[in-house]
Amino acid sequence: LATSLCRLSSVAKRWPQLRVAPAYAWGGKGVQEDALDQISSEGALGVSFELPIFNQHQGPVGEALGRRAAAGEHMKAVQAEIFGEIDRAELAWPAARRAWADSAQLAQLAAQQQQSEERAVAAGLSERSAALAARIAATEAQLAVLEAAYAAQLSYGVLEDAYRRPLEGA
After folding, report:
1. 14 and 64 in contact (C-beta within 8 Å)?
2. Mean pLDDT score, 75-90
3. pLDDT on residue 115
4. What are phi and psi of 25, to 5 degrees?
5. Half-sphere CA count of 39, side-chain side, radius 13 A
6. Per-residue pLDDT, 2
7. Whole-angstrom distance, CA of residue 170 vs CA of residue 27
8. 125 versus 25: which is more confidently predicted?
9. For residues 35 and 44, what is the distance between their CA atoms, to the nearest angstrom?
10. What is the dihedral of CA 36, 38, 41, 44, to 10 degrees?
């Protein structure tokens, strides 16, 4: 607010200024300041007139315009950063969701493979080590699903942060 007022006063000073004020008068008692009751007998007014012919107070006006331009450029930079953050988050969220779905499908295949191996062991068509390997693969696939879900939730949180508001729905 102070800068705006300073800039406005500097802009106002670009045109001629006329100031009228009470003045000092030389009377019989020397230099004295006019009192209001003596204005009729010895009234004096001081008049000053400023003509800004050459510089027109362009320095303060230029400084204020420079600060305004710098603030505008800063705002554009912050906006560009926010838009870039939103774009990155909007690209990352679908990819993370797709990775989560893909890992869930792989975990389902690994679980089916485990069940198949366990049935083969029960029928005597496979060894116990193959069923154990299939169980380990299914467990690792479930861990991969959890990691993908965690990454997707982080990506969703980044998307909410980019929009600076909570997102609702799917």
Report:
1. no
2. 92
3. 92
4. -120, 150
5. 7
6. 53
7. 90
8. 125
9. 10
10. -50
52's tokens: 């800004």
Distance CA 19, CA 13 (A): 12
Q: What's the per-residue H, E or C state across the chain?
A: CHHHHHHHHHHHCCCCEEEEEECEEEECCEEEECCHHHCCCCCCEEEEEECCCCCCCHHHHHHHHHHHHHHHHHHHHHHHHHHHHHHHHHHHHHHHHHHHHHHHHHHHHHHHHHHHHHHHHHHCCCCHHHHHHHHHHHHHHHHHHHHHHHHHHHHHHHHHHHHCCCCCCC
Specify the pLDDT at position 106: 94
Residue 94 pLDDT: 92
Structure-token pair, residue 88: 């990155």
Q: What is the pTM (predicted TM-score) of this model?
A: 0.55
The token pair that represents 14 in the structure block: 């670009």
The string of pLDDT tens digits covering residues 12-71 is 666 677 777 776 655 555 555 555 555 555 556 677 777 666 666 677 777 888 889 999
